[in-house]
Design brief:
Shape of chain A: globular
Helix content of chain B: under 10%
Oligomer: heterodimer
Number of helices of chain A: 0
Shape of chain B: globular
Radius of gyration of chain A: 14 Å
Structural class of chain A: mainly beta
Order of helices and strands of chain A: EEEEEEEEEEE
Distance between the termini of chain B: 41 Å
Number of helices of chain B: 0
Chain lengths: ~120, ~110
């Protein structure tokens, strides 16, 4: 069974441009999560989508946005890129969470975004 | 606000040693806790997941324990090998859907 896939592997942009990162979850998973790992800052939660809706958002500016498609794949868009947006962006997927339960998150290999 | 701390930040040991990595969290109301491994420039590899009702999990040379009441988890690595060199991350599952990660412990096992 295929795991979580992300594209592209690497992305190089210049300041002010927009970046689009893509994630395909494990088959049967309806929740997708995005995390940012910037140098020296650790892994930070960005966004959580479940069943096509945004469920939770981390402490990031509105320049960071995304969506989830009917097939549960997801896009992360970063507008007006800044140098500090350079990071490894990780996507994870899980089964849809019940009201009182968790579901293990499975991670993709990541997209390395470099802003020049 | 949940905070996760890992001690030590870095560790260097000779091959064959047994070692313990520590993880502490401030809010004991967690669902579960997971240990990951990350090689330089790479994504995350899941090592062990401990459900909130469990006290430990084992996989090969790895053993992870969880004490929710004290807000602590440990990852025990037996008979360390150079291939174990990596950054080890601890993360807790809260009720907001997100994983909260510690800063990691970077392990170097010398041949």
């Amino acid at each position: 069974e295929a795991g979580v896939t992300q594209s592209p592997t690497h992305l190089i942009k210049t300041r002010g441009q927009q970046a689009t990162l893509r994630c395909s979850p494990i088959s049967g998973h309806t929740s997708v999560y995005w995390y940012q790992q910037a140098l020296g800052l650790g892994l930070q939660f960005l966004l959580w989508y479940d069943e096509g809706e945004e469920r939770n958002r981390g402490n990031f500016p509105p320049r960071f946005s995304g969506r989830q498609f009917p097939n549960y794949s997801s896009e992360l868009n970063v507008n007006a890129l800044e140098l500090e947006d350079s990071a490894l962006y990780l996507c994870a997927s899980s089964l849809s969470r019940g009201a009182l339960s968790y579901n293990e998150q499975f991670f993709g290999p990541g997209t390395r975004l470099t802003v020049l | 606000k949940q905070e996760v701390t890992q001690i030590p930040a870095a560790l260097s040991v000779p091959e064959g040693e047994n070692l313990v990595l520590n993880c502490s969290f401030t809010d004991s109301a967690i669902y579960n806790l997971q240990w990951f491994r990350q090689d330089p420039g790479k994504g995350l590899t899941s090592l062990l997941l401990i459900q909130s009702s469990q006290r430990e999990q084992t996989s090969g040379r790895l053993n992870a324990s969880l004490d929710k009441s004290s807000g602590r988890s440990t990852l025990y690595i037996a008979a360390s090998q150079p291939g174990d060199s990596a950054t080890y991350l601890c993360a807790v599952y809260g009720n907001t859907g997100k994983l909260i990660f510690g800063q990691g412990t970077t392990l170097q096992v010398k041949p």
